[in-house]
Write a structure and sequence with these properties.
The chain is mainly alpha-helical and 224 residues long. It is built from eleven helices and three strands; from the N terminus they run ααααααααααβββα. A three-stranded antiparallel sheet has the order 1-2-3. The chain is globular.
């Protein structure tokens, strides 16, 4: 991704394009890679999103704001935003990661997005990085109902189905990948009556189920 392409999607243009290049270089490709920028971008992102939700939801208590921020900066949300920026087509990967589908792996793309934000911070300062975060994340805010922030996706989906006298969803682990100490779980959520079948990925079975439930809940609402 060159600076002009990023400008079209976020409104930000790099004065030091080598920072963007580093942000999109995975460690499997070589050095300098993006892990330090990812570390920096994670902190920038959390601070900027905290400010965004604080201003947008002026009456929410601290606990709900924390849950909302967590929903906005989790791996799946970052992965989906990275896809809108076409980071999968731009990230530099080693041959092994390339062959194993690393360019579409949620963890790699989510980390790359954080690295890009870290690069923006170094290139233009916090205000510019915050502007990019606001541009990317503001459209996501309408997805959240302040009344349901304390409920996790599995609970919301269960209550939705029960209110319509439908069978509860079926969850099953489809595959596990990665090393034993760093596994990724791929879980399927099925609701036969609504013809819904979604997938979720996470570092634990529970987090993968929650992600699959979130997608199923969104699809169920779209049926209305």
């Amino acid at each position: 991704m060159d600076s002009d392409t990023l400008f079209k999607k976020t409104g930000y243009s790099f004065s030091q394009p080598e920072l963007l290049c580093q942000a999109l270089t995975h460690r499997s490709y070589g050095r300098p890679h993006n892990e330090r920028l990812e570390f920096l971008g994670d902190s920038v992102l959390n601070c900027a999103v905290a400010g965004l939700v604080f201003r947008h939801f002026s009456s929410l208590p601290e606990g709900d704001l924390s849950r909302l921020r967590a929903n906005l900066v989790n791996q799946q949300a970052l992965f989906e935003l990275a896809q809108t920026l076409d980071l999968g087509k731009q990230i530099k990967l080693g041959e092994g990661e390339l062959k194993s589908g690393g360019c579409s792996r949620p963890s790699i793309l989510a980390d790359a997005l954080e690295a890009v934000l870290g690069a923006v911070y170094l290139d233009g300062g916090f205000v510019k990085a915050e502007e990019v975060v606001i541009t990317l994340f503001t459209p996501l805010l309408h997805q959240f109902d302040p009344q349901n922030l304390s409920k996790d996706p599995k609970t919301l989906l269960q209550e939705y189905l029960q209110s319509r006298k439908l069978m509860l969803p079926q969850y099953s682990v489809v595959i596990t990948s990665g090393e034993a100490h760093q596994q990724q779980f791929h879980v399927e959520c099925v609701i036969p009556k609504l013809n819904i079948r979604t997938m979720g990925e996470g570092a634990s079975r529970r987090s993968a189920e929650q992600e699959a439930a979130k997608r199923a809940y969104e699809q169920a609402h779209s049926h209305c």
